[in-house]
From TrEMBL:
Cellular component, GO, one term: cytosol
Presence of keyword Flavoprotein: yes
Protein name: Mitochondrial tRNA translation optimization 1
All residue ranges annotated as the tRNA uridine 5-carboxymethylaminomethyl modification enzyme C-terminal subdomain domain in the record: 577-649
Molecular function as annotated in GO: flavin adenine dinucleotide binding
Top-level taxon of origin: Eukaryota
Entry's transmembrane regions: none
Lineage: Eukaryota, Metazoa, Chordata, Craniata, Vertebrata
Cofactor: FAD
Single Gene Ontology BP annotation: tRNA methylation
Entry similarity comment: Belongs to the MnmG family.
Keyword Membrane attached: no
Keywords: FAD, Flavoprotein, tRNA processing
Length: 655
């Protein structure tokens, strides 16, 4: 289902898209503010659900811009991309179109925690997202800066509760009404840019910040708690000025794996993929950082930055004397620039040049654009419901970096969910939630709304308790039916395809289970496989597929009549077989929690000394709330399913 070519973008941009005056007084179901990774998914999802949607963003040509790294996916993040795709979102297909170097990270570990990742061509990614949005039915895209949210006075019967009614554009000129508004202002809310000792207002280099009026509405009018976070980006380096022969060549996978369940191949042919290069910092880098600290405002601030994507200044100061990895990544097929991942920095430009020239392949390098930092406001996400709606303001949804996350994937995932819910709310349908047991998106949202953030939040596989069930390969089976049947954000084409896949996988598993042979018969069929005699004397094909050295292809060649029609799913079946015991166990645990909903929890329990695996945070919540039943504990914000299982086991044993 990969597109052959993109339509010429200007032909999609009606003049209307740039002039908003005539929209004054118009009522939309949903208005999405911001055309970044959250906003684009939100707008497209709202329109797919059936809402008349307006996307307002500062500049149409920056829709879908990759503000920092030209890459998508990775460990934990790749799972989010697959789930967004399973819910018919854009980023997976955009990644398949724009990818120029595909690799599966974490391959040495099990497929549950593999991280699909691609290096992207920035321009192609932007073109794809813009072309998709500008041709989405029920979606209008306009250029403008939103200055203020229009909200009703609080309801006297529900003090502090407002309802959003629309937005006002900058200069107080135009007001546009909507039943729901999704705010996705990214790093722009009261944004300030930092280079050396210079600070200037901005949301991203070349872009003005979101006006102070918007922060004012959120804080003063709606009484929302906000905080301040920061992030930074490396300088972009002129490719021809770098001696790549001094860096280690890193090749992509020879067979690129598409992100999207609808694609069987990527736009970039395997042999056309571009390599990346690995190099390392030297002691000279640390010296330059230390000598220039007093010239670096950003690093002197207390505001928290992304712990897992730190600046070179933070890396050097936290781990003195170490050599740090620097990846030199292409920015696009025709781009003359390299992105030095690992060298995010905010010192003055002349010192940035001195620093990069301390790294052997960059001894003569030239900087095209200096690195810089950005600080911005975020809204404490504990003030949101699991539908990403502000609890105290009916119809107002928030998604992306504004909720304290970092990363395109985290933004896209929230955007899709907030957009779908904003549409449902506007169309008088109940909002929907995703649980931690069914998706990484559920884990992400639950973490945000129940725990909040103290530093930019990014996704990791370790955050998902049921990660063996929440695999990248099965996101379609987990989410596409729900997206179609319950949410309404999935097209019937994708739904039908997911049903075909689900039924075929089910038929294949049944066929594998029907191959019920003695170990000696299996040995004759598969002489190269060391089948242990200590195992059961009778084994099914599914049992055998769980062996490390047995592939589905081997079984299909031994039993072509029953298995060869499923060859398309060979890898998925292997993964299904390997994880089946874990998934069955997870399923049983979840069902057990549901069955034991009414089990009483002793009221004198000392949660702080319980000899079971519970985090300090969970113990503190349980101690404070003292839920009377297991069901009540399950519904507490911040209590994970894994914690409930441990609690259940403890109470059952001590009864
Ligand atoms: P954005 O992509 O920022 O999009 C916000 C959109 O809203 C923009 O289109 C903007 O024009 C629009 N907008 C804002 N205010 C208004 C308004 N009032 N009216 C209309 N439109 C408005 N992520 C990482 O994972 N690792 C990193 O190291 C990293 N470094 C970064 C460094 C920098 C300098 C920047 C700018 C970003 C960095 N990011 C990093 C963050 C990454 O870019 C974001 O996580 C991601 O883009 C967030 O998506 P979003 O949709 O929430 O916001």
């Amino acid at each position: 289902m990969l597109r052959k070519k993109l339509p010429f973008l200007h032909s999609l941009l009606s003049p209307v898209s740039r002039h908003v005056g005539h929209l004054t007084g118009h009522q939309y179901d949903v208005i999405v503010v911001g055309g970044g990774h959250a906003g684009t998914e939100a707008a497209a999802a709202a329109a797919r659900v059936g809402a008349e949607t307006l996307l307002i963003t500062q500049k149409i040509h920056t829709i879908g811009a990759l503000s920092c790294n030209p890459s998508l996916g990775g460990v934990g993040k790749g799972q989010l991309v697959k789930e967004v795709d399973a819910l018919d979102g854009l980023c997976g297909r955009a990644g398949d179109w724009a990818g120029i170097h595909f690799s599966i990270l974490n391959r040495r570990k099990g497929p549950a925690v593999w991280g699909p990742r691609a290096q992207l061509d920035r321009q192609r990614y932007r073109d794809f997202i813009q072309s998709e949005l500008l041709s989405t039915p029920r979606l209008t895209v306009v250029e403008g800066s939103v200055e203020e949210l229009l909200v009703t006075e609080p309801n006297p019967e529900e003090p502090g509760h407002h309802r959003v009614t629309g937005i006002r554009l900058a200069n107080g000129s135009h007001a546009i009404s909507a039943r729901s508004v999704v705010l996705t202002t990214g790093t722009f809310l009261s944004g300030s840019l930092f280079v050396g000792q210079t600070t200037s207002p901005g949301g991203r280099i070349g872009d003005a910040p979101s006006s102070a009026g918007l922060s004012h509405t959120l804080r003063e009018r709606l009484g929302l708690r906000t905080g301040r976070l920061r992030t930074g980006t490396p300088p972009r380096i002129v490719k021809d000025s770098v001696d790549l022969s001094l860096a280690k060549l890193h090749l992509p996978d020879s067979h690129p794996t598409p992100f999207s369940f609808l694609n069987t191949h990527t736009h970039c042919k395997p042999e056309e993929q571009l390599p990346c290069y690995l190099t390392f910092t030297t002691p000279g880098v640390e010296r330059v950082v230390r000598e220039s600290l007093q010239l670096n405002c950003h690093i002197q601030q207390d505001t928290k930055g992304p712990r897992y994507c730190p600046s070179i200044e933070s890396r050097v100061l936290r781990f003195p004397g170490r050599s740090h990895q620097v990846w030199l990544e292409p920015e696009g097929v025709t781009s003359d620039l390299l992105y030095p991942q690992g060298l995010s920095m905010t010192m003055p430009p002349d010192i940035q040049l001195r620093l990069i020239r301390e790294i052997p392949p960059m001894r003569r390098a030239e900087i095209h654009t200096p690195g810089y930092g950005v600080q911005y406001d975020f809204v404490c996400p504990t003030q949101l419901s699991p539908a990403l709606q502000v609890k105290s303001t009916q119809g107002l949804f928030l998604a992306g970096q504004i909720n304290g996350t970092t990363g395109y994937e985290e933004a896209a995932a929230q955007g899709l969910w907030a957009g779908a819910n904003a549409a449902r709310s506007a169309l008088s349908m109940p909002t929907v939630t995703l649980s931690r047991t069914e998706s990484y998106i559920g884990v992400l949202i639950d973490d945000l709304v129940s725990r909040g953030v103290t530093e930019p939040y990014r996704m990791f596989t370790s955050r998902a308790e049921f990660r063996t069930s929440l695999r990248p390969d099965n996101a379609d089976l987990r989410l596409t039916p729900k997206g179609f049947e319950e949410v309404g954000c999935v097209s019937s084409v994708r739904y039908q395809e997911s049903l075909r896949v689900r039924n075929s996988l089910q038929d294949a598993l049944t066929a594998l289970q029907a191959l019920f042979l003695s170990t000696s018969s299996w040995k004759k069929k598969l002489p190269s496989v060391p089948i242990s005699e200590t195992k059961s004397t009778l084994l099914t094909g599914l049992d055998l597929l769980q062996y490390n050295d047995v592939t589905f292809e081997m079984l299909a060649s031994a039993f072509p009549e029953s298995l060869s029609s499923f060859m398309e799913f060979a890898q998925r079946l292997k993964i299904e077989a390997v994880y089946k015991p874990h998934c069955d166990l997870n399923k049983k645990e979840i069902e057990r929690i549901q069955r034991e909903e009414n089990m009483s929890l002793p009221q004198d329990i000392d949660y702080f000394s319980l000899p079971v695996s519970l985090s300090d945070e969970v113990r503190e919540i349980l101690d404070r709330v003292r839920p009377s039943t297991l069901g009540a504990a399950t519904r507490l914000e911040g209590i994970t399913p894994a914690a409930v299982v441990n609690l259940l086991n403890y109470v059952r044993v001590t009864e």
